Protein backbone atom coordinates (compact mmCIF):
# COMPACT_ATOMS: atom_id res chain seq x y z
CA UNK A 1 0.00 0.00 0.00
CA UNK A 2 1.46 3.35 -1.00
CA UNK A 3 1.51 6.49 1.15
CA UNK A 4 -1.36 8.09 -0.75
CA UNK A 5 -3.53 4.96 -0.42
CA UNK A 6 -2.82 4.82 3.33
CA UNK A 7 -3.78 8.49 3.75
CA UNK A 8 -6.96 8.00 1.68
CA UNK A 9 -7.92 4.94 3.71
CA UNK A 10 -7.25 6.74 7.00
CA UNK A 11 -9.35 9.68 5.83
CA UNK A 12 -12.21 7.38 4.88
CA UNK A 13 -12.11 5.75 8.31
CA UNK A 14 -12.13 9.15 10.03
CA UNK A 15 -15.12 10.32 7.94
CA UNK A 16 -17.02 7.14 8.82
CA UNK A 17 -16.34 7.63 12.55
CA UNK A 18 -17.56 11.24 12.39
CA UNK A 19 -20.73 10.07 10.65
CA UNK A 20 -21.32 7.58 13.48
CA UNK A 21 -20.62 4.48 11.43
CA UNK A 22 -18.02 1.90 12.11
CA UNK A 23 -15.60 1.20 9.30
CA UNK A 24 -15.99 -2.23 7.76
CA UNK A 25 -13.13 -4.52 8.38
CA UNK A 26 -11.91 -6.52 5.48
CA UNK A 27 -12.46 -10.20 6.11
CA UNK A 28 -9.37 -12.29 5.84
CA UNK A 29 -9.45 -15.84 4.58
CA UNK A 30 -9.11 -18.49 7.21
CA UNK A 31 -5.90 -20.45 7.36
CA UNK A 32 -7.34 -23.55 5.75
CA UNK A 33 -8.72 -21.52 2.82
CA UNK A 34 -5.40 -19.78 2.34
CA UNK A 35 -3.56 -23.10 2.42
CA UNK A 36 -5.99 -24.68 -0.07
CA UNK A 37 -5.78 -21.67 -2.37
CA UNK A 38 -1.98 -21.78 -2.28
CA UNK A 39 -2.04 -25.50 -3.12
CA UNK A 40 -4.44 -25.05 -6.03
CA UNK A 41 -2.51 -22.11 -7.47
CA UNK A 42 0.80 -23.92 -6.98
CA UNK A 43 -0.56 -27.01 -8.74
CA UNK A 44 -1.72 -24.81 -11.62
CA UNK A 45 1.49 -22.80 -12.00
CA UNK A 46 3.79 -25.76 -11.44
CA UNK A 47 1.81 -27.66 -14.05
CA UNK A 48 2.12 -24.78 -16.50
CA UNK A 49 5.73 -23.83 -15.90
CA UNK A 50 7.44 -26.68 -14.06
CA UNK A 51 9.25 -26.50 -10.73
CA UNK A 52 12.36 -24.67 -11.91
CA UNK A 53 10.42 -21.95 -13.75
CA UNK A 54 7.88 -21.20 -11.02
CA UNK A 55 8.80 -18.73 -8.30
CA UNK A 56 7.23 -18.48 -4.87
CA UNK A 57 6.54 -14.82 -5.63
CA UNK A 58 4.47 -15.80 -8.68
CA UNK A 59 2.53 -18.36 -6.64
CA UNK A 60 1.86 -15.87 -3.84
CA UNK A 61 0.75 -13.17 -6.27
CA UNK A 62 -1.58 -15.52 -8.14
CA UNK A 63 -3.05 -16.76 -4.84
CA UNK A 64 -3.38 -13.15 -3.62
CA UNK A 65 -1.49 -13.82 -0.41
CA UNK A 66 1.66 -12.50 1.19
CA UNK A 67 4.74 -14.46 0.12
CA UNK A 68 5.37 -15.22 3.80
CA UNK A 69 2.25 -17.42 3.77
CA UNK A 70 4.15 -20.02 1.74
CA UNK A 71 6.81 -20.22 4.45
CA UNK A 72 4.15 -20.23 7.16
CA UNK A 73 2.13 -23.14 5.75
CA UNK A 74 4.79 -25.08 3.84
CA UNK A 75 8.17 -23.82 5.16
CA UNK A 76 9.63 -23.47 1.63
CA UNK A 77 9.00 -23.80 -2.07
CA UNK A 78 10.10 -27.41 -1.78
CA UNK A 79 7.57 -27.98 1.02
CA UNK A 80 4.82 -26.50 -1.14
CA UNK A 81 5.87 -28.77 -4.00
CA UNK A 82 5.79 -31.80 -1.69
CA UNK A 83 2.27 -30.81 -0.60
CA UNK A 84 1.18 -30.48 -4.24
CA UNK A 85 2.69 -33.90 -4.97
CA UNK A 86 0.84 -35.26 -1.93
CA UNK A 87 -2.39 -34.16 -3.60
CA UNK A 88 -1.41 -36.21 -6.65
CA UNK A 89 -0.40 -39.23 -4.59
CA UNK A 90 -3.59 -39.13 -2.55
CA UNK A 91 -5.74 -38.84 -5.68
CA UNK A 92 -3.94 -41.62 -7.53
CA UNK A 93 -3.63 -44.33 -4.89
CA UNK A 94 -4.98 -47.54 -6.30
CA UNK A 95 -7.14 -49.65 -3.99
CA UNK A 96 -5.54 -52.95 -4.96
CA UNK A 97 -7.03 -54.76 -1.96
CA UNK A 98 -10.52 -54.18 -3.36
CA UNK A 99 -9.40 -55.67 -6.66
CA UNK A 100 -7.67 -58.73 -5.26
CA UNK A 101 -10.66 -60.95 -4.55
CA UNK A 102 -9.39 -64.39 -5.60
CA UNK A 103 -12.70 -65.69 -6.98
CA UNK A 104 -13.36 -62.56 -9.05
CA UNK A 105 -13.19 -63.20 -12.83
CA UNK A 106 -10.47 -61.34 -14.71
CA UNK A 107 -12.95 -59.40 -16.87
CA UNK A 108 -14.71 -58.12 -13.74
CA UNK A 109 -11.36 -57.23 -12.22
CA UNK A 110 -10.35 -55.18 -15.24
CA UNK A 111 -13.81 -53.62 -15.49
CA UNK A 112 -13.47 -52.43 -11.88
CA UNK A 113 -9.83 -51.43 -12.29
CA UNK A 114 -10.14 -48.76 -15.00
CA UNK A 115 -12.71 -46.55 -13.25
CA UNK A 116 -10.50 -46.50 -10.15
CA UNK A 117 -7.47 -45.55 -12.27
CA UNK A 118 -9.37 -42.79 -14.06
CA UNK A 119 -11.21 -41.44 -11.00
CA UNK A 120 -8.62 -38.70 -10.29
CA UNK A 121 -9.20 -37.30 -13.78
CA UNK A 122 -12.83 -36.58 -12.89
CA UNK A 123 -11.88 -33.93 -10.37
CA UNK A 124 -12.42 -31.01 -12.73
CA UNK A 125 -9.75 -28.42 -13.34
CA UNK A 126 -7.51 -29.75 -10.59
CA UNK A 127 -7.08 -32.95 -12.61
CA UNK A 128 -5.83 -30.99 -15.60
CA UNK A 129 -3.28 -29.20 -13.43
CA UNK A 130 -2.18 -32.53 -11.96
CA UNK A 131 -1.76 -34.13 -15.38
CA UNK A 132 0.32 -31.19 -16.55
CA UNK A 133 2.48 -31.40 -13.43
CA UNK A 134 3.04 -35.11 -14.08
CA UNK A 135 4.01 -34.33 -17.68
CA UNK A 136 6.54 -31.77 -16.46
CA UNK A 137 7.95 -34.40 -14.15
CA UNK A 138 8.33 -36.81 -17.07
CA UNK A 139 10.24 -34.15 -19.04
CA UNK A 140 12.33 -32.72 -16.20
CA UNK A 141 12.15 -34.98 -13.14
CA UNK A 142 12.82 -33.44 -9.75
CA UNK A 143 14.27 -35.27 -6.75
CA UNK A 144 11.08 -34.47 -4.83
CA UNK A 145 8.99 -36.41 -7.32
CA UNK A 146 11.34 -39.39 -7.18
CA UNK A 147 11.05 -39.39 -3.39
CA UNK A 148 7.29 -38.90 -3.26
CA UNK A 149 5.62 -40.41 -6.31
CA UNK A 150 7.94 -43.21 -7.45
CA UNK A 151 7.42 -45.34 -4.30
CA UNK A 152 3.63 -45.04 -4.62
CA UNK A 153 3.68 -45.93 -8.31
CA UNK A 154 6.09 -48.81 -7.66
CA UNK A 155 3.93 -50.22 -4.85
CA UNK A 156 0.72 -49.92 -6.90
CA UNK A 157 2.41 -51.47 -9.93
CA UNK A 158 3.78 -54.41 -7.93
CA UNK A 159 0.45 -55.05 -6.24
CA UNK A 160 -1.42 -54.84 -9.52
CA UNK A 161 1.09 -57.12 -11.26
CA UNK A 162 0.74 -59.61 -8.42
CA UNK A 163 -3.07 -59.60 -8.67
CA UNK A 164 -2.97 -60.03 -12.45
CA UNK A 165 -0.37 -62.80 -12.21
CA UNK A 166 -2.50 -64.67 -9.68
CA UNK A 167 -5.50 -64.46 -12.01
CA UNK A 168 -3.51 -65.49 -15.05
CA UNK A 169 -1.63 -68.29 -13.29
CA UNK A 170 1.75 -66.74 -14.05
CA UNK A 171 4.68 -66.49 -11.66
CA UNK A 172 4.92 -63.23 -9.73
CA UNK A 173 7.44 -61.06 -11.61
CA UNK A 174 8.59 -57.84 -9.94
UniProtKB/TrEMBL annotation:
Residues 32-92 form the HTH tetR-type domain. It comes from the Bacteria. The keyword Transcription applies. PROSITE patterns: HTH_TETR_1, HTH_TETR_2. InterPro entries: DNA-bd_HTH_TetR-type_CS, Homeodomain-like_sf, HTH-type_TetR-like_transc_reg, HTH_TetR. Pfam families: TetR_N. Signal peptide: none annotated. Keywords: DNA-binding, Repressor, Transcription, Transcription regulation. PANTHER family: HTH-TYPE TRANSCRIPTIONAL REGULATOR BETI, HTH-TYPE TRANSCRIPTIONAL REGULATOR RUTR. This is TetR family transcriptional regulator.
